[in-house]
């Protein structure tokens, strides 16, 4: 065992040493900061959030529509997951993420999700003073709703490992500006989340943040969320929790 | 489950103004950048990211935006580690077809890393590492490369210490199975 540990340690150090040093990482960093402070910026994280709350709270779907589909190329290159600096003033512990953008009264409105002080929150993000333009000037958060991150169970059967919410819904399933869009929050013990529509078809959830206390996914059902289900698995692939709403 | 409207809090926060200027006190942040950038980049690489430079840059960018709200300079390095782990994982997710058992490593990554390691004595160990689950690999890299203790690994990965122990044990078992001759030495 000791020998294997030593070989492992040696291999990791040897492998790390193959990575060449960056020439001027600070300059690259400064350029990145400047670009993030730009007034106009693309929506880098896609998908969306809305809010339909399933009574009883095993699963709470979030949904948003009118939402331009996130450009796949943007999602797959460069930054990977990127939180929005437009709403960075929220000083969230996780995010804020623009999970969707939709049109309301002729203006572009963001669906913003963030974690702070143990709450998962979402709201509309309005860009101030730009009327119906698509200017992405940072703006106001409107209609914030939050749900507390629960005390996660320590073993299966002792509470739920998964919380779900529809994004910006009115409380009625498939309502709001982005129906069909849900956010899932899972316990740290959950390694993989599978989501299904009411008809049993699979919905690919996108993991967009993993923090010390929770992991966030967004799932675009592209249809009704009613009767949705999910299966949460641990790192070994064993089912921690399975539910149909 | 609690569900509440928290507009007052949002309004208060909004009144505090936008974070349009750098938040970091430049001395502390710059020192951390200089000390840790390469290490964070290598951490991303060891976790299998194909763009470790970008991940390290992104991690520091995020840290910069949260510097004042972290609650102390001692929180900065753990935050960086967590962010690098999460971003590396996210990046892998985009690169790999992941469904239930993400045991098959990304072919591009394997190929690139295997090329780098070709001719090295510990190539077998490295290949065995690539066969581990992402979580197992994370635990081993944090333990045997960053030399973190179990508590720090648990905090970095957002899991219980017991899970760290179990994952480490499973990972070492898997390595032993993949390298039977190594364990017999």
Automatic annotation (TrEMBL), chain A:
Keywords: Membrane, Transmembrane, Transmembrane helix
Superkingdom classification of source: Bacteria
Transmembrane intervals: 43-64
Protein name as catalogued: Uncharacterized protein
Species of origin: Actinophytocola algeriensis
Lineage, opening ranks: Bacteria, Bacillati, Actinomycetota, Actinomycetes, Pseudonocardiales
UniProtKB/TrEMBL annotation, chain B:
Keywords: DNA-binding, Sigma factor, Transcription, Transcription regulation
Pfam families recorded: Sigma70_r4_2
GO biological process: DNA-templated transcription initiation
Domain RNA polymerase sigma factor 70 region 4 type: 123-175
Keyword Disulfide bond tagged: no
Region (Disordered): 1-25
Matches recorded under InterPro entries: RNA_pol_sigma-70-like (IPR039425), RNA_pol_sigma-70_dom (IPR014284), RNA_pol_sigma70_r4_t2 (IPR013249), RNA_pol_sigma_r2 (IPR013325), RNA_pol_sigma_r3/r4-like (IPR013324), WH-like_DNA-bd_sf (IPR036388)
Record carries keyword Transcription regulation: yes
MF terms (GO), sorted A to Z: DNA binding; sigma factor activity
NCBIfam families according to UniProt: sigma70-ECF
Similarity section: Belongs to the sigma-70 factor family. ECF subfamily.
Protein name from the UniProt record: RNA polymerase sigma factor (Sigma-70 family)
